[in-house]
């Protein structure tokens, strides 16, 4: 009996400590929110209505500091996620951020938008990547979120093609670990599945699993994983590959989890907007280069980066839309365009190619 009372007393003391900590946390969050409101007032007074409330480089710096100061037991990613939501809520007090993403609701792109901007952002789905670009260009939203590459299936060509004709800038990036699930509805006969819906890339990322478990099922590519999930209602012989969020939104059941062939499968998304982002200290730059079809063209493009010891993270080729040049290169590399060595390298590259367009310098993905 004494041991039980001692245990109960210990639990009571711990709960009282937690209550006191929660009170202090609430007070500090309120204090931070009031500071955010004061920041908005200062910006409005000095910018005459043209204030930038969301600063990608500032948010990246804050999240990095959060992780550097982390003493555990929460992981760096979990602690940074909590702070992201605090910053999102505080930013909404200044001015809610409107974000367009490749929809419909329940896609991985929506998950990327929420991961980057937090739950307090106003996120709006659009059915095509070029629509996301148009909404940002028209000023209807502040930013857009579009997929650009997958670790298994490679580049998303529609995103790269839109940069050829757009003046938008890349303001940030998001890396999202992608887990695919096989979803069914309440009316599905799980022993008679003969059709599986999903986005083409998702079908490709689960190819081996499907070959093993549903070798005879028809694989139907649709516009998005969320659209695949939406189609299941009323189809007794169909399933869909989609994220767990889609199952929640469309009232479906998860028949099999994490069916992607590569356990480290991830997708990179870009944040597109109109602003030029200052250096955050850990940045990446993306450029578009038009080349003439002549011997040594690729060497001429890459040699200055090698000589200046600049780390290239991606080089992609796309056919030119204009017909004037044979092809264009999309190049990502570490560093900010305001760095002297980056400026010197880009000046040299510019003199060697038909055209060079800086798509943006932006903070590397933090989470």
Mean pLDDT level: 91
- Unreliable stretches (pLDDT < 50, length at least 5) are none
Helix tally? Answer: 12
Known CATH architecture of the domain at 276-367 = 2-Layer Sandwich
State the oligomer.
Answer: single chain
Gyration radius, to the nearest Å? 24 Å
Total strand segments: 15
CATH class assignment of the domain at 276-367: Alpha Beta
Name of the CATH homologous superfamily of the domain at 276-367: ACT domain
Give the overall silhouette: globular
Termini gap = 49 Å
The CATH topology annotation of the domain at 276-367 reads as Alpha-Beta Plaits
Report strand %. Answer: 25-35%
Task: Give a structural overview.
The protein is built from twelve helices and 15 strands. Helix 4 (108-117) links the parallel strand 1 (98-102) and strand 2 (122-126). The strands form three sheets. Strands 1, 2, 3, 4, 5 and 11 form a six-stranded mixed β-sheet that branches. Among the domains are: 19-94, Chorismate mutase (Chorismate Mutase Domain, subunit A, Up-down Bundle); 181-264, 3-Layer(aba) Sandwich (D-Maltodextrin-Binding Protein, domain 2); 276-367, Alpha-Beta Plaits (2-Layer Sandwich). The chain has helices spanning 2-47, 56-68, 76-94, 108-117, 129-138, 157-165, 200-205, 207-213, 225-231, 244-250, 297-307, 340-352; strands spanning 98-102, 122-126, 143-150, 154-155, 169-177, 181-184, 195-199, 218-222, 238-242, 253-256, 266-273, 283-291, 312-319, 327-334, 355-363. It is of the alpha/beta class.
